Structures are given as C-alpha cells and as structure tokens.
Amino acid sequence: MRARHCGLDFGTSNSTLGFRTGAGYAMCPLDGDSPxxxxxxxxxxxxDRVQFGRGGIAAYITGxxxxxxxxxxSVLGSQLIGETTLIGRKRVPMRAIIGMFxxxxxKLAEQRLGHExxxxxxGRPVRFVDEDDMADRRAEEELxxxxxxxxxxxxxxxxxxxxxxxxxxxxxxxxxxxxxxxxGGGTSDFVIARLSPEGAQRSDRSxxxxxxSGVHVGGTDFDCSLSIAQAMPHLGYHALIGPKRLPMPxxxxxxxxxxxxxxxxxxxxxxxxxxxxxxxSDQPAxxxxxxxxxxxxxxxxxxxxVEAAKIALSDAMEAILHLPRDPEAAxxxxxxxxxxxxxxxxxxxxxxxxxxxxxxxxxxxAVNPAHLQSxxxxxxxxxxxxxxxxxxxxxxxxxxxxxxxxxxxxxxxAIDADRRFG
Length: 422
What we know:
The chain has twelve helices and 20 strands. The protein has about 425 residues and is an alpha+beta fold. Helix 4 crosses helix 12 (about 410-420) and helix 7 (about 270-275) runs antiparallel to helix 8 (about 285-295). Belongs to the heat shock protein 70 family. Pfam families: HSP70 (PF00012).
C-alpha cells in the first residue's frame, strides 16, 4: 500500500512536505527539483493567473504587474486573518490565500507521488502568539480548518521542534539529552528531549519530552530589524515634517519592513499623505523615494533585497543592499554596503529573546544547561553567525549538531504522520 499521508511544514519563509518511502522518509520536490517552496503567492495581472514560490517571486521582481504576498503564516493568530486584501479589483480573504498555497502543495505532492494524499500532520510552532493562549489555540484551529478545506480528510498537528527531534533521533546510536533549536522564519522553538534508538521505536514520546518553549522571533524579525537600521533611513525614516518639525510616523516604516504587512500599505490614503508632507520636510528627496516605492508597490522587492543581504552576511563580512530603482528620483539609486557588524547589532536584541526562551525551556525541563549533551540546530536563521555563536556559548558543553536547515521539520512530521496514519 502506498502511504496516503504526509508531513507538511507550512513555514513563514519556506514550506516543505515529507512522506514515507520504501527506504525510509524523503522530502517531496515542490519547486522544480527543490524540496523547499518559498511561501509566496503572486497574482499575475498580465496573464490572469496565480504563481507560487520562486516563479511568483521572480515574476514580481522582473516587473510583471501583480500582487505578491509572503510570510502568510504570520497572519495566523492575528487580526489580519479576518481581513481581505485587494487583488486586482476584487477583495480576497487572507484565509483564502493561505488555502490556495496549501492546496498547491497538496496538488504538487500528489502529482509527484501519483496518488491522493488523505491525511496530514501539520507543523506548528510552540507559540503562534506569545502570552495569549486563546489566540494561540485559535491560530491552530484556523490552520487545521484551512487544511481540511483543501481536501485533507484527517489533519493532526505536531510541534515543529518535536518533529525536528524525531528527525535527528534517526541518526543516534545511543541515548542523549538534547536541546532542539528550530529558528524559523517567524518563530523560534525549543525542546529538551531524551532521545535514543530505542525511543525512536515508540509511538508515544510524551515521557521523553522534558521541556519546551517558543518565542515569536524568527528570520522575518531579523529582516525587519536590519531593514529599519539600514534601509529605512534612506527612505526618510528620521525625517522631520511640518512647521513644528515632528518626526515621521514610524509605523509606516515598521510595516514596510514587515513582510505580511506590506500589502496593506498600498492605499490611496498613504499616497496622499506622503504627497502632502514632502515639500515641508527636511528630507524631501528621501520621502520622494518612499512615495515612489509605495506608488509602484515595490515593498516586497525592498524586503527581498534586505533578506538577500542578511543571507549573504552569513558567509561574507560585507554585502551590498540595493533600494528599488526610481529613474526619476532626485537622489541617485541607492546601493550601499552593509557589514556583518551591522547585522549583529540589528539582531542583538532579538537574539537575547532567543537565549531567554532557551533558559525557560531548561527551567521547565529542570535541566542545567551545562548538562545538555547535544544541541541540534535547524531552521534558516541558525545560519546567522552571531545568533548561532550566542546559542552555542550559552550551552557550551553540548555537542553542536547541524541539521538540514529547511528539511528537518518536514522529515520529522513525515515520521509522525507514519506513526499516526500508517
């Protein structure tokens, strides 16, 4: 019998899908040969179609007229899940857009596997919403409900760091007391677990999960912090306006630096406001650049440039950050150097919140950080050198293990799906 179940990791930045094979577990190619599908939906106005993943992002960046939405997972648990956004001349619920993306993942997987997928285990962060249990439960219910609407008959959920632990456990030859660190696009999640080859055979692992914690900090937050510090000053972030020289409203810039809030900035009211204050400001050329960016709906292009600079700084000490081009601007096109030190400073505060969440996990598990034997690192943000360094320094006695940055959770969810539905 071919497995009619899968594990689906719907991520803030990237999504994956794992399934059982004859030889074990594998990731399903979702975007060409890549197992990662960027969590992006592009509404192509020119050809009146919807594109997903890298294709949609590429179309948007090359100037195809349309709307790009990213970081869709961040909408879960927020008031935005009940909002609509303008797509062409039609207002579309955000919930429906998430549904389109999950339906596309299901369709791609079924085409690859050659049969229908009935059952799924969805990954979920330890906390969708910090310090609000009701909103957190509602976010999970929303995700499960959306998945069922796309044709999954039975839907279960599993904490993403527990899924990562299940994947790591497959490689062990002896018992370990391990800290699982999953730094995703929207959340950072942690589990302390007793893992072993014997434990890998048990379906009930509740007794081996000693502690867990999570915090709403992830790669998109690092993008936001870097954007505010390095990009937004070139768009008038520190401009003073009016006869009283009041500061520009900061929410415009923070929303422009936040992936899932960008589409809601493209309003006639914001455009009119900027036009009304430019001439009476101390940085008119920079505010003209901001006006052009919003008028041309280039917010996601800017966010992509910031993200690319962040990724480049994982391997290099310097990167070039480009602002979207405005051929009629009074200022020349902005291309400036960002250093790794700039990135370290921008993410320092959020990294401190990650360390505090690890300490909470240790307290819940009643484990001294010095007694941890291994630390398993997964998620794209573990590639940021200063973040990784501070984590490893905090659990200095633990042996660092690098997991598949983008695939560990999906594989673990496939293992969990096999145990539940196999």
